[in-house]
Amino acid sequence: NGMALIEQEIEGAETTIIEMGRDQSRWENYYLDAAEGDFDIIIGGNWEASPTFEKVIEQFPDKKFINFDWDVPPSFENTYGMFYKANELGYLTGLVAGLVTKTELPYSDPSKNIIGAIGGMEFAGINDFLYGYIQGAQAVNPEVKVFIAYANNFGDPGKGKEIALNQYGNGADIIFHAAGGTGNGLFDAAVEAERYALGVDADQALLFANDPEKQEKILTSGTKNIDLAILKAVQRHLDGTLPYGELEILGIAEEGVGLARNDIYNALPQDLRAIVDEFEQKVI
Prior knowledge:
Layout: H1 2-9, H2 27-36, E1 41-44, H3 50-57, E2 64-67, E3 79-84, H4 86-100, E4 114-119, H5 124-140, E5 145-150, H6 157-169, E6 174-178, H7 184-193, E7 196-201, H8 212-215, E8 218-224, H9 226-239, E9 247-250, E10 257-259, H10 263-266, H11 270-283
Parallel strand pairs: 1-2, 2-3, 3-9, 4-5, 4-6, 6-7, 7-8
Antiparallel strand pairs: 8-10
Helix pairs in contact: 1-9, 2-3, 4-5, 4-11, 6-7
């Protein structure tokens, strides 16, 4: 999406997308092909691929590189790094959860005042999401109870569904996940339990355009706006203002993270959405 925005918004821009696949032994060759090509900027990254990316970057000091999603400062002066404030993303989803659980809605029970969350594994990067989620919920609902569970896996939807059904069964109205593919099981559980869910990273309701029963349960998602961040980085490169050699961590104020304000979210009561907007402005 970021590459599409570059072509839409920057006159004369040409982009090429190289799909590296999941075979990590081939990643270095893909990065080498890009670095040796006739490109002004090479964009790549994420936590798995970044060490390989940097190994190649070191060999091309005259090229410009953008790492779009890694929390480690660049090792080289020709590289700009971006990361995202997962705690602020979690905070926004927590606001929604804390408000929904005390509101009379088709799939919530205000008498219980319980929400849940699923983490893929228990480490700092995932806890950023979850601590923000807890704080957001408590900001608008100080008495809310929050279930937290870790799946110890990012690719097991069955485990995600099992954890979610347990949390729903113990009274949670709405569950957020920061669990990758494991989190897809949450959405199956939301349908089965007739409760709400919250997605992560992208507008996950879009995954289920052909399944309206599931889609209506995903009230919103906390989003990393990587597409917009990539566009802004390239625009700043052209302006000569992109701080190569540095890592910038993008939050709500920088439009690096946000909420999916889609038709499902916009169907929530206006007063609820106004409170979310108010607290979002406080963060900014």
